[in-house]
Every structure is written in C-alpha cells, then in structure tokens.
Amino acid sequence: MNRHLSKLIQKSFSIQTKATQNYTMPHPIWNKPELEQVSLEHKPALTFGDHFAYYFIQSMRIGFDVMSGYKKIAPFQSELVSEKKWINRVLFLETVAGVPGFVAGMHRHLRSLRGMKRDQGWIHTLLEEAENERIHLLTFLNIKKPSLIFRTGVVLAQTWYVALFGVAYMFWPRVCHRIVGYLEEEAVKTYTHMIHEIEREGSPIHSWTTRKANEHSIEYWGLEKDATLLDVVKAIRKDEEHHKDVNHYFADDYTQSKPNPFPPGK
User: Fold this and answer.
1) Where do transmembrane segments lie in this chain (predicted)?
2) How many angstroms separate the CA atoms of 149 and 193, rounded?
3) For the whole model, what pTM was predicted?
4) Which of 50, 75, 108, 126 is deepest in the core (most CB within 10 A)?
C-alpha cells in the first residue's frame, strides 16, 4: 500500500469525532427576541393560482385536522390534544413539508443543467429548506417513535405528493411556491397553538417547559446548554415563518428568474 495513503488512513481513524457532529447546510440561527417575534400575517390571494393554492391548503388542513384528532368531531372525543396526538400531527406535517424544497431544488438544478446557465441562488435555499424540515422530523422522533401504521401512511402520502408536486412544478412553479407559502402559514399557526399548550399549566405537554432538549437540537439551533423542548419548538416555529416568507417571495416572482435575496445561513 502507498505509504502516504497508509498514513492518511491511520490519521483518519485517530481523529476523535464528536457524537453530535453533523453535516447540515448553513441555516439561520435565531436569537431569543427573534424567537418571540413571529407573525401570523396572511398573504392575500390575488390571482387565480393564488386562490387555488389557498383553498387547496385549507381543504387539506380540514382533512388533516380530523384524521389527526386535532379537531373534535365526535361526542366521545376529548377536546384535549394528547401528547401522542401532538407528536403524530407534527411528525406527519414535517414529512409533507420536507418534500417541496427538495423537489423544487431538483427541478431547478436540472433546468440549470439543460439551460446551461446559473440558477440565481435558488437551489441552495430550497435544499436547505428541505433539510431543515427533515431536522424538525428527526427532532420529534427523539420524543416518540411512530407506529407501523403511521409509517405506512407516510409512505403512501409521500408517494402521491411527490408525484403531484413534481408534475405541478414543471408547469406552474409559481403556484407551487404559493402552495408552500400557505402550507407554512398553517404550520406557524399549529406551532403557535402548540407553544400556548406547552405554556398552559395542566396541559398534556406542559412538561416540555422543563424537559431538556437533546444535544443535536441544541447544536443545530445554537441554543443554550439548558434549553428545553419549549425552546426547540419556538425555533421550529421561527423556521416555518422563514419558509413562509421565502416561498411567498418566490411565488411573487412571475419570471422565476430573479436573484435569490436569501444568502446561505440567512
């Protein structure tokens, strides 16, 4: 074996790697004031595509609220949303939210290759969004592992959603970004409600105010060493607000070719 290669291999095995080391893309790190300053402002629908995007998301939310037990529809159902229902709701939400950024980034990557021209920086932001949503999913998986039935539902939902969004993005990318913008509006509402429930004494998830966040979450969001799950949820909510603003901005670009004003990590 080549002597240089042998030394390189030995050196690589001798390096002590932190257990929490990750290879995530640059992403925003929010300070405490920013975590509290979250807007629930709705983007008004102006065009036919905007109205379609809005009502599509609203119809999906109604079905999702019923299926996840978030909304009481039967007399025997409790008005309280249990910890299990909260976890299942956000897990499913994140498996859906992690799709658009990756699919859109792939489309724009291939378009850049075909057109042999630059993409104006959109690809990185879209892929970072997809990764960020996946981190949200992995964060909640540290709290509870889903059942086989739940995983099967995710596979089936992902199959049709990836296909549908992929085809739609080829023809109506602006409408697709508007759909994601409205989806993120609903995500911000959900996490705002969740935060209120965490802070409400006696709620099924009130213990999250003192339950320590795991090391990966603390490292990823740059949280303090004694951060709790409440702090993590606030960071996730701020991420969703950021995705909302980014996608509404992209949807406002009718040319789909303006420079991306969101640099890496911003």
Assistant:
1) 148-172
2) 26
3) 0.88
4) 126
